[in-house]
Design a protein that fits this description.
The protein has 175 residues and is an alpha/beta fold. The protein has 6 helices and 6 strands, in the order E-E-E-H-E-H-H-E-H-H-E-H. Strand 2 and strand 3 form a beta hairpin. It is globular and about 45 Å long.
């Protein structure tokens, strides 16, 4: 991989909605948290190494804070994450993800409302695309964005996962 720019560190994390791959940088900031692909950890590792243009090394110790906070969240003992984040994306995507992080546990907003919150009131489709490109699901709660009528809308991890996460947080869905 000649276009590798840095080394990132990984550790798979088992959760009730499927395994995730924690990816942190050398400072311990969470860069990505993808769901494992059907091919498993090796396939996900290869995909994200290319996507992040990085060499990925297994390092459970560096990823331990991510694992701990995810375990607390899924056990119902954590409602907000306080991990340092370093998602990679465009300025628009990062602005969208920052707003996602402000949606509290148990809350849900529409794509239109999210677009208004980032100053792009007619940008619900662009916000939906940025939401779908979120590299840190669960921690950056893209699952808390729903269609304007309160129905699920889409979710990169699949609608069953989104439904489970919202139910876990006590969100009642409309429609």
């Amino acid at each position: 991989m000649s276009d590798v720019t840095d080394t990132l560190f990984t550790d798979p994390v088992a959760t009730p909605v499927g395994d995730l791959l924690a990816v942190v940088d050398g400072e311990g900031r969470l860069v990505a948290l993808p769901f494992l692909e059907p091919g498993g950890a090796e396939t996900t590792h290869a995909t994200w190494a290319r996507r992040l243009r990085a060499r990925l090394e297994a390092d459970a110790a560096r990823c331990a804070p991510v694992r701990r906070q995810l375990e607390e969240y899924f056990a119902g003992r954590r409602r907000a994450f306080d991990l340092p984040l370093a998602p990679r994306g465009t300025a628009f995507q990062r602005a969208t993800w920052e707003q996602l992080s402000r949606i509290p546990w148990g809350g849900a907003i529409s794509y239109g409302e999210l677009a208004r919150r980032i100053g792009r009131p007619r940008g619900s489709r662009a916000v939906g695309q940025a939401n779908g490109a979120n590299p840190i699901p669960v921690v950056v709660p893209c699952h808390r964005v729903v269609a304007g009528d309160g129905t699920l809308g889409g979710y990169g991890g699949g609608l069953e996962r989104k439904r489970w996460l919202l139910a876990h947080e006590g969100v009642a869905l409309g429609g």
